[in-house]
Write a structure and sequence with these properties.
The complex is a heterodimer.
Chain A: E1 9-13, E2 18-23, E3 31-38, E4 45-50, E5 55-56, E6 61-64, E7 70-75, E8 84-92, E9 107-112
Chain B: E1 5-7, E2 10-13, E3 19-24, E4 31-37, E5 44-50, E6 53-57, E7 65-68, E8 75-79, E9 88-95, E10 104-105, E11 109-113
Parallel strand pairs in B: 2-11
Antiparallel strand pairs in B: 1-3, 3-8, 4-5, 4-9, 5-6, 7-8, 9-10, 9-11
The chains are: A mainly beta, B mainly beta.
Chain lengths: ~110, ~110
């Protein structure tokens, strides 16, 4: 799987949008961008994934650049419960063979009151 | 609560003892994964099953580790002759084999080897 680069930590004020960047300059055409987060002492939680179009769900939005070399996860109105480590993962679709998730160090996001 | 449960949540054992962890996946999920996470690091893949077949094992899974999923439902991960380096959080996840394939993780079992 392609490697990703994320800032080790970020801060955001409660109620503001949190924008978490991820670089994946070696991404292949058939690789998806997945985001998971891990709240302290819990297992990782799936947030969103996308291939090339922007995606939105009830948790977040995912913006992928046109060249697909980077992406941004947006939490539109961050709350204290969004404090977590956020992982950006690049992988092929599971039906194409890759099953495991390869986690990097992630970004530790702290939401401040 | 994702619907994936793990037991026990915490285990303290002495070096050299054997330990076994259990994972119960979401009932309709036919894929089950084990990961290990040490302090300050992201989870690392250990192995995965599709139904009862173990289809991939990481080189991290030494011969002291064995995983089973005998009836394609729950899974067990056994560590024999534990070492201090085995201290970690052991995470289980499950997914469907079709659709969007996202993995749902359990709360983990924290192992401390003294």
């Amino acid at each position: 799987d392609a490697k990703t680069t994320q800032p080790p930590s970020m801060d955001c004020a409660e109620g503001r949008a949190a924008n978490l960047p991820c670089n994946h300059s070696t991404i292949s055409g058939n690789e998806y961008v997945y985001w998971y987060r891990q709240i302290h002492s819990q297992g990782p939680q799936y947030i969103i994934h996308g291939l090339k179009n922007n995606e939105t769900n009830e948790m977040a939005s995912l913006i992928i650049t046109e060249d697909r070399k980077s992406s941004t996860l947006i939490l539109p109105h961050a709350t204290l419960r969004d404090t977590a480590v956020y992982y950006c993962i690049v992988r092929v679709a599971a039906y194409q063979g890759a099953q495991k998730l390869v986690f990097g160090q992630g970004t530790r996001l702290t939401i401040n009151p | 609560d994702t619907g994936v449960s793990q037991d026990p949540r915490h285990k303290i054992t002495k070096r050299g003892q054997n330990v076994t962890f259990r994972c119960d996946p979401i009932s309709e999920h036919n894929r089950l994964y084990w990961y290990r996470q040490t302090l300050g690091q992201g989870p690392e893949f250990l192995t995965y099953f599709q139904n009862e077949a173990q289809l991939e094992k990481s080189r991290l899974l030494s011969d002291r580790f064995s995983a089973e999923r005998p009836k394609g439902s729950f899974s067990t991960l056994e560590i024999q002759r534990t070492e201090q380096g085995d201290s970690a959080m052991y995470l289980c996840a499950s997914s469907l084999a079709a659709g969007s394939y996202e993995q749902y993780f359990g709360p983990g079992t924290r192992l401390t080897v003294t």
